[in-house]
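Quick one:
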Amino acid sequence: MFKFNKLSTAFALVGALSLIPAGAVFAGNHGHDDDDDDDDDKSYVLQGNCAELPADRTTEFHGNPATSNLNLAMAGNQWVVFDHFMQAFNEHRDARGEKGIDLTAIGNQTRTFAGLQNKGADYFIELIPPGQERNQIKSGCMLLGNEDDRNFLPTSIQVDFDVFTSTNYNLMRDLANSGFVTEAVPYIRNQLTLMTDAANSPGIGTTPDETIDATMDLLDPNVRVSEVDHINEGVHRGINNMYKRMDEYTRTNGSAAEIAALDAALALVSVPQPGSPAETRTAEEGITTDFNLATNPECHYSGHAVIADGTLRMCEFAILNKSNTHETRVHHVETPERILAGTSDTGPVWVSELQLAVNNGDAVSGYQPIDDVNQPVVYSVAFLATMSKKHRKLARKWVKFLRSPEGVQIYVDGGFSALTGTEQGERYSFDADGNLVITPFTP
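Output:
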C-alpha cells in the first residue's frame, strides 16, 4: 500500500528538532493562511539555501502554485511525455464524473484569466533535474535568474509540493532522512542511448563487438561527441557510469590489441586538449573540476580484481577533454540539432528523448549499449510531508493513474520501458538512535 508521508514516531521529530541550525524555518504554508493546512506536528523543517536555476529555464515551470490543487516535482526528462500524460489525466478525471474539467487546458495556447482558473489547469508542475527539486523541497524555495548581477531580488518560487519523482533512490533517502518521505514506489524505467543520424553514418557500435567498438568510437579523435553538461545536467552521472562500465567491458572482454588501443586513446585525452570544453570552461567560467584522468578517481582504476591500479578509464571527462567535443547546456535540444546539422556525430540522450525526436520526424537514430553497461534507470514516486490536506485526494488519484496500465502506456509510447515486476520500492523509518532504516518491498 502506497502511504501518505507522516512520520509516526515522536522520536523522529524530536531528533530532527535537535539538529535545527540557526535560521531554519518551520515548514507549512510559507506564511500563507489556509484553514486546510496540515497538522502542526511537522516531521521536517525547511533549511539551507534556495535551489537556483537560470532565468531561461522558466519554460520548465508550468502552472501557478497559488491556484493549484496539485503540486508535482517531476524528474525533468519526463517532459517528453508529460503534456500527453496530463491531457490523459484530465480525460481520466472527466470520465470518472469529476465536474467542470477543462479538456482544452493542456497545450501551448493563448490564455485568459478565467481560463487559468478552470479545473484541468489547476496544477503546478516542475520538470527539472530531480537533484534541484530535492534542494527546493528541503529549503522551501527556488530562485530564478539569481546569476544575473542586476537581479537585486530574484523571482522566487515558494511551494509546498505534494508529489516528488526521482531517477534514483539516493534522493528519496536524503529526503527521508530529513523527514519529507516515508515511502518511494517504482513506476517506470528508462535507458540511455547514443544518438546518431538516421543512417548511423559514423558507425557507432558496429561489429564484431558492438560495445568495444562504441567505446573506441567515443574516444576516436574524428568522432565529434555532443556531451552533456557535467555541472548542471543531472543525467551526466548516469552517462559517466555507462562510460566507465564500457571501459571495464572492453578490458575484460577485448583482445590485447583492443586494450592497447584503448590505453593509447585515453593517453591522448588524459588532460584537456586545446579548445576542448574542459579547457575553455576552466578558463572562462572558473570550473574547478579535475579533468586530469590520472588524478580524478572517476577516471582510473583502484582496487579492481583484475585491472591494475592507476589504469586510465574512460569517463565523461575523457570525452570533455577532446578538442572536438561540444558540451551542451540543454542536451535534449542541442544534441539532435547538432546531429541534424552535421556538427556532431553522436551524443548520449535518454531513449525517450530519441523517441521524441523520431516522433517529430527528425532523421536521427541511435545505438543503445547493452544492459550490462547501460543499466536501466528506475523512476520512483513519493508523497511528500509538505502535501496539504486539500490536495490529498487529487494527489492520490494522480499517483494511481501514474502507475495504472493506461498511465504506463503513455510513457511506453514515449520511449520509456514498463517495469519488469522485479523492481522494489523502499520504506523509510528511524531506529532508536535516529538512524535511517531502509526496508525494500515489492509493491
